[in-house]
Design goal:
Helices cover about 20% and strands about 30% of the residues. The protein is an alpha/beta fold and about 400 residues long.
Length: about 400
């Protein structure tokens, strides 16, 4: 059995980034950019109106109010071939190219048109209400740096400079397998001594929250042949999550079956509570997690072990869970010998986090997990947590 820190270190050591790929910019959200992106154009590519109004020469309205003759209309995307002369203006829409001879735009609110005569009520400065060519982007300017996690705003920039595809980090394929003769699918009739499969949908939901589309392999009974067949399918993916069957019972067959299929064990059992029976192994480039079957263990294992591995596969710079500091809201007694993760409700008052441990009946208590915002962490040698003592915690809540 190894300590939490060593287990995480081994997982990250064995989960290097996947090869990059080229995908459409619309599909690139959340991926890590694997190239520097440069603009092949200037932006704006021409001088354009920043407001609806009238394009004119500023010197023609120095003595406003004054009247100018309107010689046409320019909408966004139009090509206007006339040149503006003295005492003339052109009605122009936002985003439309400025006509030759004009260098300013007066807002429509400051005008009054009658036929082709426009009363200009106020003066304007040279360049007022105009977006000039290249003021946002220069040709060959770097617009996004390699290593950035792509956001919707980045997609807009990529589209602005005309990119249809972009080179990004690889995206792992993950499979989920549930084990146990007592588990049945949701929606089916619940027979005596059976329970509904909560871990499968939860693990799938967690993967989807990390932008991974999971493959569900179903529920395998505690039978070596059935387990072997299902696990073989999962080993075709970049990651396989096997829920249940990794403890020390007579029917906890997963480690034995994994070994028979050539999965190299990196470790089995971590000195934490809950989640002690965790298995981690590798076959070729497939990462295999055997996750304890109780729901709280399942969730915690994903949060502190599986997610960091996924982040590493996707090329993220920071993959380790983020531990923050808060104050325990009440005293609790802990058992020494294992690093203990307590489900807690988290509140923030005056820039201080307060951690209220929930009444949890053990690692099968799904209701305690559903009411939690995170886990408070007590080191293995801690006998008690006093009220208002400083404690580390991790959270999935935006705080």
């Amino acid at each position: 059995m190894i300590e939490y820190e060593e287990a995480l270190k081994l997982i990250l050591k064995n989960s290097g980034p996947l090869p990059p790929e080229e995908i459409s910019i619309e599909d690139s959200i959340g991926r890590i950019l694997k190239e520097d992106v440069y603009s092949a154009i200037e932006m704006p590519p021409f001088d354009k109106a920043a407001m609806d109004g009238y394009a004119l020469r500023a010197r023609d309205v120095n003595n406003a109010p004054t009247r100018l003759r309107c010689i046409g209309l320019i909408q966004a995307g139009d090509i206007f071939k006339k040149k503006l002369n003295g005492a003339e203006c052109v009605k122009i829409m936002t985003g439309a190219p400025l006509p030759a001879g004009a260098e300013s735009v007066v807002m429509v609110e400051d005008t009054l048109q009658s036929g082709d005569s426009v009363l200009i009520k106020k003066t304007v400065k040279k360049g007022e209400n105009v977006c000039f060519k290249g003021e946002d982007l220069k040709r060959r300017q770097r617009v996004i740096e390699q290593g950035v996690k792509i956001s919707p705003a980045h997609v807009a920039v990529l589209a602005t400079v005309g990119r249809r595809f972009v080179r990004v980090s690889g995206k792992p394929q993950a499979a989920v397998l549930n084990t146990g003769g007592e588990i049945v699918s949701t929606g089916s009739k619940l027979a005596k001594n059976k329970i509904y499969n909560s871990n499968g949908p939860m693990l799938e939901a967690l993967l989807k929250s990390d932008n991974i589309k999971p493959s569900f392999l179903g529920i395998a009974k505690d039978d070596p042949g059935e387990l072997r067949s299902a696990i073989k399918q999962g080993l075709k993916k970049d990651m396989l999550l096997v829920s249940g069957g990794v403890s020390m019972g007579d029917y906890d067959l997963v480690p034995e079956v994994l070994a028979s299929l050539g999965v190299r064990k990196i470790f089995h059992k971590v000195n934490i509570k809950p989640g002690k029976p965790l298995f981690f192994g590798v076959k070729n480039k497939t990462l295999v997690f055997g996750i304890p079957g109780n729901p709280v263990s399942n969730f915690l294992s994903y949060f502190v072990f599986v997610r960091p591995a996924l982040c590493n596969l996707m090329g993220y710079q920071y993959c380790e869970p983020e531990f923050r500091e808060g104050l325990a809201a009440k005293k609790i007694i802990t058992k020494t010998g294992r690093k203990h993760f307590f489900p807690v409700k988290i509140t923030k008052k005056e820039n201080q986090y307060h951690l209220a441990p929930l009444n949890c009946h053990g690692s099968a208590d799904i209701m305690a997990l559903s009411g939690a915002d995170g886990f408070m962490v007590a080191d293995k040698d801690r006998q008690a947590v006093e009220k208002n003592s400083k404690m580390k915690f991790i959270t999935w809540k935006i705080i």
